[in-house]
Amino acid sequence: MIKPFAYLLKTASVLPVLFSLVSVNLLSSQSAHTLWFDRPAEHFEETLVLGNGKAGASIFGGVATDSIYLNDATLWSGEPVDPYMNPEAYKNLPAIREALKNENYKLADSLQSKLQGSFSQSYMPLGTVYLNFEHKNQPQSYHRQLELEKALSTVTYKVDGITFTREYFISHTDQAMVIRLKSSKKATLNFNIGFNSLLKYELATNGPTLEVNGYAPYHVEPSYRGKMPNPVQFDPNRGTRFTTLFKIKHTDGKLVGTDHTLALKDATEAIIYVSIATSFNGFDKNPATEGLDHKAMASSQLSKASSKPFDTLFEAHLKDHQKYFNRVHLNLGKTTAEDLPTDERLKRYAKGEEDKNLEVLYFQYGRYLLISSSRTPNVPANLQGIWNPYIRPPWSSNYTLNINAEENYWLAENANLSEMHQPMLGFIENIAQTGKITAKTFYGAGGWAACHNSDIWAMSNPVGDFGQGGINWANWNMGGTWLSSHLWEHYTFSQDSDFLKNRAYPLLKGAAEFCLEWLVEDKDGNLVTSPGTSPENKFITPDGYQGATLYGSTSDLAMIRECFQQTIAASEILKTDAAFRTQLEKALAKLYPYQVGKKGNLQEWYHDWEDVDPKHRHQSHLYGLYPGHHISPEKTPELADATRTTLNIKGDETTGWSKGWRINLWARLLDGNRAYKQYRELLRYVAPDGVRASYEKGGGTYPNLFDAHPPFQIDGNFGGAAAVVEMLVQSSLQEIRLLPALPDVWANGSVEGLKARGNFEVAITWNNKVPTKVKIHSVTGGSTVLKHGTKQKELTLKPNETVEFNW
Ligand code: FUC
Asked: Residue of the nearest CA to atom 11 in ligand 1?
């Protein structure tokens, strides 16, 4: 329990210039690391969420009934995709290219609809567990919280003078959710467990265990297709199967089982163990006929976990979680903010009040969410991480590759959670397999390609239901090109040359091969994509046509540029493929160059055309500035100016993920105050509004600190957290910039454990915006140059060597 006054006294005594970074954070840990409320959740966006990277729980913490939404990262609708779904689509390319040559954009748009395949499948809700209590009277002193450092949620309240406590965590080590219930007075704990689900399922009790067996739909239509006949299709012989087991262990009282519930009467303490398993057995295995034995897995997990006492399970859980969470400490200096429930705190902050620990909390919450949602091999965090109660979730809660899936992983390396990047890296290996067929059948090219959407089946084809999808989003085909940058980024941070050689390079090469074959010459001999689009935007031609299909879209070329540069760098490091490298270098030199438009903006289209929506949330043509590296104020000042003008034309009002991206863009433009302004806006309070949310209202943050696109979409959480790092440390394989975009309001502070390229860990203490002490730890050995302002310092360190000095 938080004691607000004790906490205030402790924080007030913290001097920001202390170099002992760890102790500073221990002192300020309460409100920088804890979410809390004085009442139960009414809405999903008020729940406190837990996850072990596979199983997820959203806890309402109700008094008479506690509802907990359960999820499993591997429970999706659908079955393996047929990548040959439109085997002759590529035959339409000559006609599209001809239309573009003739500047007939309308015809090009209509022909592009022939380059579409099926939609992705959706991430499924597993079900809701209900804990029903026999409380007759109103509760008092209600408190529920989530401690990020412990990955532990707690609910406490009093009824009739008796204190009731519930503690919840989900162990990765033991693959089980554990709930301990206690009452302060003997034999007053009375509750039963119930379950229901939007999926097909059966319930049975077996001694102290409630058993659920069910299956997911084999097909779900995306929510944005609206009302249509039969959008959710079940077949008992198709789709992913699941088993969920609940076991009650009690020291006293009496257990009573009915067909559908388990009840415990007159107990003082009890533990509920929850075990979940699905039949998902990889993207290319039929989950009904070639699936894993989910029943055996669930029961073995349950028997192992329930043979251990609560404390043993919790200690192992804590050790595992803190191995990752405790790597990074951030202190932004003295705060005067009072300790309020998290929603009140957000509302107060929205009025412009200071709350530095809320800014730290949002950053650490991003790290917490990634640890909690990204630990399943080949199954990255989706649009909602792993937390989803809807059977037709917003945008299918899928992997949206034109920004969202990648943004989820922007903090993985720099916020020192490289292990959590692995599910995404494994997923890229899968999608490169279906993507080989997509490249060939849709685009007549070698290598591999992926498009706008994907799912657990690693689908890579352009979506749209064979001609129904909007060209401005459905036909984009740079998903593989963008994804491949994650392989290179993982290498630059980890310096893992085995990974580069055996896993990354073949995939980078395949992505580059696709681009090389996809490029064609324009009338002046420049290389361009044709057809191309710019994610979700539309242009207006001089004669007034509003279209999406053109040649040489800036974002296509930006992504290809970055992909070629990274593949060239990788082949140089590996001393391989000299001939292919030369091909890439030649193509790079011939790419249609960036253009600065009449407004001083970075042109989004080949021609200097107007946009249908100049304030559009997507800004893919700025890719070279962030997440790419080929535009910067230092290396390409004119282009950096043009990106700044584009951002100013767009204005700051935008959705959650888009804001997360813009903060990073402003940080790369070295404008800390503008980045901070947008960070504050990302933390703007948004009331819970479920799937009815409309994004015209702009993005922000829900009471439980979930990002509001709106609706809830987790990418803004991750993008915002990544941007905090980008304000404090930026790096390349040659240098580390200290405090490159520090906002004025963060004039004093300290950070420890951030990662820089070259596999360095960075700690900085700063005062009046200038570093005072710096500590660099080299994990694998190597050289770098530290920079701040005009000052710089060269460093060469041995593996595992640490240096610490006054700046
Ligand atoms: C793209 C975006 C939307 C949303 C969706 C998941 O279509 O334009 O804003 O993020 O993906």
From this structure: 400
Q: Does the beta carbon of 537 sit less than 6 angstroms from any atom of ligand 1? A: no
Measured distance CA(722)–CA(116) in Å, rounded: 34
| Cis check: omega of the bond before 80, within 30 degrees of 0 | no
Closest listed residue to residue 715, CA positions, set 422, 458, 393, 384:
384
60-79: average pLDDT? 98
Calculate what percentage of the chain has a pLDDT beyond 90: 93
Nearest to 61 by CA among 71, 50, 52: 50
Ligand 1 center to residue 538 CA distance, Å? 15
The alpha carbon of residue 397 and the mean position of all alpha carbons in its chain are separated, in whole angstroms, by 11
The mean per-residue pLDDT over the stretch 389-415 comes to: 98
448 CA distance to ligand 1 middle (Å):
23
Check if 550 has its Cβ closer than 6 Å to any atom of ligand 1: no
Q: How far is the CA of 657 from the centre of ligand 1 (A)?
A: 9
Average pLDDT of every residue of the chain: 95
Residue 14 has pLDDT above 70, yes or no: no
Tell me the one-letter amino acid at 765: T
- Cβ of 46 closer than 6 Å to ligand 1, yes or no, is no
Q: Which atom of ligand 1 is nearest to the CA of 655?
A: 9
Report how far residue 405's alpha carbon sits from residue 450's, in angstroms, rounded to the nearest whole number: 13
d(CA 681, CA 527): 40
| Backbone phi and psi for residue 724, each to the nearest 5 degrees, phi listed first | -60, -45
Evaluate: CB of 657 within 6 angstroms of ligand 1. yes
The Å distance, Cα 500 to ligand 1 centre, comes to: 31
At residue 788's C-alpha, the angle toward residues 785 and 790, to 5°, is 95
Alpha carbon of residue 661 to chain centroid: 12
Q: What integer is the mean pLDDT of 754-759?
A: 98
123 lines ligand 1 (CB under 6 A): no
Alpha-carbon span 233 to 467, nearest angstrom: 22
Q: How far is CA 801 from each of CA 375, 592, 795, rounded to the nearest angstrom?
A: 29, 45, 11
User: What is the arrangement of strands in the sheet containing 801-806, beginning at the earlier edge strand?
Assistant: 329-331, 749-756, 760-767, 770-778, 801-806
What is the C-alpha to C-alpha distance for residues 409 and 398, in angstroms, rounded to an integer? 15
Q: How many residues does the chain have?
A: 807
Q: 689 pLDDT band (50/70/90 cuts)?
A: confident
Question: Which of 657, 659, 661, 707 is the best mutation target for the ligand 1 pocket, counting ligand atoms within 8 Å of the beta carbon and taking the most?
Answer: 657
Q: Is the CB of 472 under 6 A from ligand 1?
A: no
Task: Please give the span between the terminal C-alpha atoms of the chain, in angstroms, as a whole number.
Answer: 40
Coil, helix or strand for 572? helix
- Answer yes or no: is pLDDT of 695 > 90: no
Report the distance separating Cα 790 and Cα 705, nearest Å. Answer: 38
Angle, helices 342-350 vs 356-373, to 10°: value is 130
Confidence of residue 58 (pLDDT cuts 50, 70, 90): very high
The pLDDT assigned to 691 comes to: 67
Q: How many Å separate Cα 406 from the centre of its chain?
A: 7
CB 44 near ligand 1, within 6 Å? no
Q: CA 106 to CA 100: how far, in whole Å? A: 9
User: Radius of gyration of the chain from Cα atoms?
Assistant: 26
Report how far residue 633's alpha carbon sits from residue 240's, in angstroms, rounded to the nearest whole number.
Answer: 50
